[in-house]
User: What shape does this take?
Amino acid sequence: MPSHSPAEVAQRSSSPALPMPAIFGKNKSKKRLIVIVWMFEAMVVVLFLFAYFSIALLSSVRAYVEAEGHYSKGQKDAIYALARYVHYGQNEDYKNFLSNLAICQGDRQAREALEKAPPDVPAAYQGFLQARNHPDDIDGMIHVFLKLRKVPEIDQAIAFWEAGDRHVENVSQIGLRVRIAVLAGTLSPAMARNFLDELHDTNSLLTPLEANFSATLGKVARKIKALMMLALLVGVSLLLSGAYVFSRRIVRQNEEAEHLLLESRNQLQHVLQLAPLSMFIVRVEDNAIVYANDHALAQFKVEGSKLGEVDPQSLYVRREDYAVFLATLKNAGSVKDLEQQFQDAQEKPFWARYSSLRIRFDEQDCVLTALMNIDDKKRAHDELHFRAFHDPLTGLPNRAMFINSMEMALGRIDRKNGVFSIMFIDLDNFKPVNDALGHEMGDLLLQQVAGRIQSCIRRGDLVARLGGDEFVVLIEDLNDVKEVSSIAHKILNILERDYSLNGHTASITSSIGISSYPKNGSELNVLLSAADAAMYRAKSAGRNNAQFYS
Assistant: This one.
């Protein structure tokens, strides 16, 4: 095998020793070419900056529209919670009222802080944050308020905003009066009706203000979009004109160097043909495969005459893997030892490790890839990984995988303020059956138990075997305690049915303990301990039943 690496070969192909006069011509022509290039680049930079600031401005206007959505929802949820408080007098409803009202009050704090002279930017930032706006949007929102206040549409939108804040303040005062009446025990039916009428009237006044605020911002966004499109059209026209002039010069230069490039191309192909790996080159411009050595043709089962018909993306089992590859290549300029799943022309999948490098081939931007089939090695690795995280007897996830799934569930559920439950299942009287019928029948029983539990849970829930006769079930996004209890009793009922064990019949029951996040804890070991304690309480209560920790 030659001692040249693909990178060295690529460097040779992209940097041929061309005669200086053939490429550059006279000094005067060289200077003119440099001027054209710099003008072209300056236009691109200006166009990019304009597009960047226009998009940032549109994003800030969009953030205000989204903020209005939070504002509107918070206002309506606050009125709904206060109405419930008037009806039922529950403290939880009043807390919900204050929590939702705080969203509107945050926006008001931000507006008043920015209207001060000088503006109180930190206070405005905290106000927008309290109103549940994304931190990345807040700086842009403050910038739009301060810099575009004199724009008629923006000023009109702020006027709607201010009017809405006055009505929200009225809601706050109504809430205070309701609170005093409830605590004093003087809230009569007639007084309650008056409060509800006031809330209804205030809501009727707020709704059109919120709609007008959004509509006004929509007008601003459309104006900005129209201006941006006009500027982009002018910029693109200038760029196209410049590209035309520049491309004519490039064509002349390419004609002068064509015979040298052909020689360099043939040398590179010869080196790649001798390589013991699958080697192929993809042209960046049109994503076409322009070269593949014999190893690559055999690996992908493609005839050389049909190489140009092959889409490189079709060689990937998962099309999104190709997008990941292109993004990595774009950022780093090369990819080293990346492992992904490919498929040949007959759609037979295989795993491969490959490295890629951007090169110049035929005076075009291309990607050189060296690929090695690692299907057997990957299969062995996956088998070891499966054994490490699954119970060999039942095929269920084992304790390690369950703990890992729990940690991911904690992070995922915590981000969206969700809930999940853990069922700790322990088989009753399994040891006598195991001792009487033998370990082989005991193992068969455990396999049937695993299958029965899996038949009772929803798709997406997780069943694992911790060891011995202990199983756990992870149930996500199920708020209703009755539904969790229903699943538990379904498991109890199916597990107490007789088991047919190669001519033997066995009967067992189970005890289930249930803990819930975040009600019974926010840490993994606490939730598992709670479910375990609830399970022992179920055994103490006579077995064959389910108990919640609290």
About this structure: Residues 1-26 have pLDDT under 50 and may be disordered. The chain has three domains: 50-236, 275-374, 390-548.
